[in-house]
């Protein structure tokens, strides 16, 4: 029977066609025993102690940390501007904020013709930022300033916003208070707080009205 000559593989390169000799792939796992290559590699990996595997994984993560950092985040971050407490920040700054520290998140997304000339925007406000803002507004009232002399010093105060009692962590609701929405406030004592709202355990109540 006449033998059929082996046809070499053809590869394209910048200089043209190159001839690749068949069956010349390097079998690195072949140095470690018999059997098929994937079985030999699996046998080799199984012989590595667990602690050494962990160290190798940590080493790989460390070596490729810069590469992972360059991977773009999900979503259209190129056409989105991010703000934290009214200050523009890069996308990477969002990872520095704990979710529990956020009082308010607002997303503004433009569509149609506006999307051509306007970037989308994400606004985040922290609880500390919100506390400072509403304190600056409320402290214009002498009665409030006497019981809350500085931002955050309102542990003995319960806020009532538009007739809604804010018992715990009021920053999310009070984030709606600003110079444009604020109308008025009134400070009431413990007895009035219990009588009108049934709230016990607080010394004062601060009744706040804002524009809806």
TrEMBL record:
Top-level taxon of origin: Bacteria
Descriptive protein name: Uncharacterized protein
């Amino acid at each position: 029977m006449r033998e059929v000559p082996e046809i070499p593989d053809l590869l394209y390169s910048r200089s043209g066609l190159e001839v690749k000799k068949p069956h010349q792939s390097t079998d690195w796992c072949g140095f470690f025993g018999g059997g098929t290559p994937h079985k030999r590699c699996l046998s080799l990996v199984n012989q590595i102690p667990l602690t050494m595997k962990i160290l190798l994984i940590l080493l790989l993560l460390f070596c490729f940390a810069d590469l992972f950092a360059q991977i773009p985040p999900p979503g259209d971050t190129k056409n989105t501007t991010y703000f934290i407490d009214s200050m523009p920040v890069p996308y990477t700054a969002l990872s520095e904020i704990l979710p529990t520290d956020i009082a308010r998140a607002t997303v503004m997304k433009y569509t149609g013709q506006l999307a051509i000339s306007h970037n989308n925007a994400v606004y985040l406000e922290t609880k500390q930022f919100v506390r400072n803002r509403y304190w600056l507004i409320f402290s214009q009232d002498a009665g409030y300033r006497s019981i809350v002399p500085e931002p955050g010093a309102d542990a003995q105060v319960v806020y009532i916003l538009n007739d809604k009692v804010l018992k715990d962590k009021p920053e999310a609701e009070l984030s709606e208070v600003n110079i444009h929405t604020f109308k008025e406030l009134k400070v009431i004592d413990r007895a009035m707080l219990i009588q009108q709202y049934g709230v016990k355990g607080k010394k004062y109540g601060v009744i706040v009205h804002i524009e809806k």
